[in-house]
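dumping this here so i dont lose it
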């Protein structure tokens, strides 16, 4: 998934630009509160809803198991980026933007590799089946 595929609303919480940069302290407190055991179910539910909304707005129409993996992957990227942002002291959160870009590139590369491996396994499996059929095995 490339950053350009994500809709603008997904960038708003991550990119706290002036004049909203002063709320980073409150954001750190909110993240700490959501990490407590009492609020953990709420934070997971909100993260799942946010990831689902972002991918829906990005045009995701998957109805297979990738529906789950995309949302889990985006949730992990989003959560790690927010945590990174709490320590970012760069002007305009440029380091956070670079961090987000690296995470999205890594996710895209992993997805591409998984797809290639799946395709290779399918071809190899059909080769084995066809080889056995050529020997008279009924499959």
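and the seq i came up w/
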């Amino acid at each position: 998934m490339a950053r350009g595929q994500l809709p603008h609303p997904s960038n708003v919480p991550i990119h706290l630009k002036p004049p909203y940069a002063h709320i980073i302290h409150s954001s750190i407190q909110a993240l700490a509160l959501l990490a407590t055991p009492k609020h953990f179910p709420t934070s997971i539910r909100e993260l799942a809803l946010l990831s689902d909304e972002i991918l829906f707005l990005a045009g995701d129409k998957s109805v297979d198991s990738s529906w789950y993996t995309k949302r889990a992957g985006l949730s992990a990227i989003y959560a790690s980026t927010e945590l990174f942002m709490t320590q970012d002291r760069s002007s305009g959160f440029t380091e956070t933007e670079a961090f987000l870009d690296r995470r999205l590139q890594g996710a895209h590369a992993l997805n591409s590799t998984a797809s290639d491996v799946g395709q290779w396994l399918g071809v190899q499996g059909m080769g084995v089946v066809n080889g056995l059929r050529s020997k008279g095995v009924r499959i």
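The CA atoms of residues 2 and 42 lie 28 Å apart.
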